[in-house]
């Protein structure tokens, strides 16, 4: 009964949040899903991986020469990490998300996703 009252974030919702909010948003949403699935260790690890990935992304961007960054279109870097995270979510949580939804589980709203 507790599972029915909780909501999960779909791969699409996580992808949108990731593109806009970066890897830390993905880490938070993936972590929330793992909590609903009862996997506390995976939830904690997902959050920390999101934080570390965000740090590494910013460190990499800060160390990249500006003349190289100027040649890269603005949406390319978010598109790349979004595609990577979308694939990872499908591999790591895809079956559980589908099972949860097939058992009348609920999706988190767009506004919950946007908050992240």
Describe the structure.
There is one protein chain. The protein is mainly alpha-helical and 116 residues long. 78% of the residues lie in helices and 3% in strands. The protein has helices at 2-5, 11-21, 23-36, 40-63, 66-69, 76-102, 110-115, and strands spanning 7-8, 106-107. The chain has a two-stranded parallel sheet with strand order 1-2. The protein is elongated. It starts with a helix and ends with a helix. The mean pLDDT is 92.
**What percentage of amino acids are in beta strands?**
under 5%
**Overall geometric form:** elongated
Could you describe the largest sheet, including whether it forms a barrel? Answer: 2 strands, parallel
The pLDDT mean sits at: 92
Which secondary-structure class do the elements indicate? mainly alpha
Please write the string of helix (H) and strand (E) elements: HEHHHHHEH
Radius of gyration, in angstroms, nearest whole number: 15 Å
Strand order of the largest sheet: 1-2
Secondary structure tally: strands: 2
Distance from first to last alpha carbon:
26 Å
Primary descriptors:
116 residues, mainly alpha, two-stranded parallel sheet, 7 helices, 2 strands, elongated
Quick gist of this model?
This protein is mainly alpha-helical. Helix content is 78%, strand content 3%.
How is the topology of this model organized?
Elements: H1 2-5, E1 7-8, H2 11-21, H3 23-36, H4 40-63, H5 66-69, H6 76-102, E2 106-107, H7 110-115
Parallel strand pairs: 1-2
Helix pairs in contact: 2-3, 2-6, 3-4, 3-6
């Amino acid at each position: 009964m507790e599972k029915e009252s909780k909501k999960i974030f779909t791969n699409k919702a996580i992808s949108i949040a990731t593109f806009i909010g970066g890897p830390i948003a993905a880490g938070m949403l993936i972590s929330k899903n793992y909590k609903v699935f009862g996997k506390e260790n995976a939830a904690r690890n997902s959050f920390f991986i999101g934080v570390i990935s965000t740090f590494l992304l910013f460190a990499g961007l800060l160390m990249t020469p500006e003349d190289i960054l100027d040649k890269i279109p603005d949406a390319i870097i978010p598109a790349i990490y979004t595609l990577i995270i979308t694939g990872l979510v499908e591999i790591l949580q895809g079956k559980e998300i589908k099972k949860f939804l097939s058992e009348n589980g609920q999706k988190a709203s767009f506004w919950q996703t946007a908050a992240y």
